[in-house]
Amino acid sequence: MSDPSADDPDGTHFTLLSGDSPSGPMDDDRLAELYAYPTELNRCLVRGNAISSLDGGAATDGTSGGLGGEGDRRLFRVLRELADVIVVGAGTARAENYSGAQMTVAQRGNRQRRGQSEVPPIALVTRSGHIEHDLPVLTRTEVPPLVLTCSDAVDDTCTRLAGAAEVIACSAADPAEVDPAAMLAALADRGLLRVLCEGGPTLTGTFVEHNLLDELCLTTAPKLVGGSAPRIASGTGHVLTSMHRAHLIADADGYLYARYTRVG
């Protein structure tokens, strides 16, 4: 039997199991079609991307990297290419050793044709504004990141980072808190409407609790982790949001990739 990825230039054999037109193996262009944002947006559309084990764990040893595979990393790159901005909690950026987004020549061309900048910025969410100036997301990046913080922390954060990032006040009534709607308003003011949220659980949970998560791209890893691993979303609020499965993809390694959109 031949290697199922032999004819796949990206090294991963994806098969569309459900959706508008189930099909066989697909390339990155087909993936980009399946995960495309709506063409006409007049507000931020927030898409979450997360990975979970079969028993619901979102991390091993404190990071999500141990759950991933080649297919997950390939889809991760496609989702980043489609986004205007990549939003992530500062704690997750530290734990996962984030640097700036990287785009290939082909991806840059695709983004230019969609009217996007060549490289999407990373937006770090932090209530305290305590961002170390030597984090890779600040030092190894082609475009400066955004720092979305509360009004009370803006001045100190600006002083500490000394121009290495654009620091944006994102508070509403309480100047000591970051308001998710204010975050999205700030991104929309900058024309960054295609929002990709990469977690962690607290940030994703905040968008869920405020009914601001429009889509969830969920990778299910064929692994069990046990223990007390965190979920993909956490928080103090409890909501019940109905989602519609837009499609389901499988790969040769047993991973499943589902795209869900919010109902209503």
From TrEMBL:
Occurrences of domain Bacterial bifunctional deaminase-reductase C-terminal (ranges): 48-254
Protein's UniProt keywords contain NADP: yes
Name of the protein: Bacterial bifunctional deaminase-reductase C-terminal domain-containing protein
Molecular functions per Gene Ontology: 5-amino-6-(5-phosphoribosylamino)uracil reductase activity
Region annotation (Disordered) ranges: 1-28
Record keyword NADP present: yes
Pfam families documented for this protein: RibD_C
GO biological process, one term: riboflavin biosynthetic process
Organism: Mycolicibacterium helvum
Database matches in InterPro entries: DHFR-like_dom_sf, RibDG_C, Riboflavin_Biosynth_HTPR
Keyword terms, alphabetized: NADP, Oxidoreductase
SUPFAM superfamilies found in the cross-reference section: Dihydrofolate reductase-like
Pathway: Cofactor biosynthesis; riboflavin biosynthesis
Domain of life: Bacteria
PANTHER family: 2,5-DIAMINO-6-RIBOSYLAMINO-4(3H)-PYRIMIDINONE 5'-PHOSPHATE REDUCTASE, DIHYDROFOLATE REDUCTASE FAMILY PROTEIN (AFU_ORTHOLOGUE AFUA_8G06820)
